[in-house]
Write a structure and sequence with these properties.
By secondary structure, this protein is mainly beta. The protein has one domain. Helix content is about 5%, strand content about 50%. The chain is built from 2 helices and 16 strands. The protein has a 16-stranded mixed sheet that branches. Strand 9, helix 2 and strand 10 form a beta-alpha-beta unit. The two termini are about 35 Å apart. This is DUF3108 domain-containing protein. Pfam families: DUF3108.
């Protein structure tokens, strides 16, 4: 007997891997630039386990690894930020998903200089490349999907625009003390050859409990999502960042078109801060209660 992947099954696996990357939305406001990077440094690696809720069960179905290293880009010192997403091997037989995102970002401002996204989802392949020219205030793109011809384009860049990978590290460095519960924090992000104005809504502090009994005070916020193939739209995603000097994403939850997904921090290494932090070691595992 042969089994085939249904569109719903493919969608939820894609959602589990990609929802940790995608923060899409709109707002009226000016995006803010980075004042100071205090949350991470080269050598950090974070691993998240993705879960899908189908009825009453949470099923482990994917993994996302984020890493930052020191590198050079066109003779300039940069952070090489990499995101690797994949579904659990148990699902490979009907929907194999492997996504790789790479960004070279300025060490001071985290402004992206080059962004590369390689998508492999079942029989679908795509390759997106973007080059940022701040002197000309433009972005050059090169995109190929499936076996279609390569598309070249030039976009007008907006100040303080991030790609879908560097934006995650920018958010970790936001000074949330400037905001009250319910405030919107504007962002500008490049995705799929378009620059989107978006926001995250700050929802205050909340404590998350690990299975070990350890508690983590977190900064809680929700991005505005655009209705599409994975999300219903609205503010149906919630992110929890550790309220310490590392600002590590502890957990992410989102409603999708069928069910809901969750990403939970599984392990960490190479943390920049151990003082004034919940994480007294630079390396460890985390077991958050679901």
């Amino acid at each position: 007997m042969k089994f085939r992947c249904t569109s719903k099954q493919g969608s939820f696996l894609k959602s589990i891997v990609l929802f940790l990357f995608l923060l899409i939305g709109t707002c009226n406001g000016q995006a803010q630039c980075l004042e100071k990077n205090f949350a991470f440094n080269a050598g950090e690696e974070l691993v998240f386990r993705g879960y899908y809720n189908w009825g009453f069960l949470w099923v482990a179905a994917g993994e996302v690894k984020l890493s930052a290293s020191a590198d050079q880009y066109k003779g300039k010192e940069v952070f090489k930020i990499k995101g690797e997403g994949k579904n659990a091997k148990a699902f490979d037989w009907f929907f194999k998903l492997r996504d790789t995102l790479t960004c070279y970002a300025d060490v001071e401002t985290l402004s992206p200089l080059y962004f590369d996204r390689r998508t492999h989802e079942a029989k679908y392949d795509a390759h997106h490349e973007y080059w940022f020219d701040y002197e000309k205030n433009q972005i050059t793109s090169q995109i190929q999907k499936r076996e279609k011809p390569v598309k070249l384009d030039t976009l007008s860049n907006k100040p303080c625009t991030f790609d879908i990978l560097s934006v995650a590290y920018y958010v970790r460095n936001i000074d949330f003390s400037k905001y009250k519960k319910g405030d919107k924090i504007p962002l500008s992000m490049l995705i799929d050859n378009e620059i989107h104005s978006l926001y995250i809504r700050y929802r205050g502090l909340e404590t998350i409990k690990a299975n070990s009994g350890e508690r983590f005070e977190c900064l809680k916020f929700s991005p505005l999502l655009v209705e599409g193939t994975m999300f219903k739209g609205g503010e149906d995603m919630t992110v929890w960042l550790s309220n310490d000097d590392n600002r590590i994403p502890i957990m992410v939850e989102a409603k999708v078109l069928v069910g809901s997904v969750k990403g939970i921090l599984e392990s960490y290494s190479g943390l920049r801060n151990t003082k004034n932090s919940f994480f007294k070691k630079k390396k460890g595992n985390l077991n958050i209660a679901e």
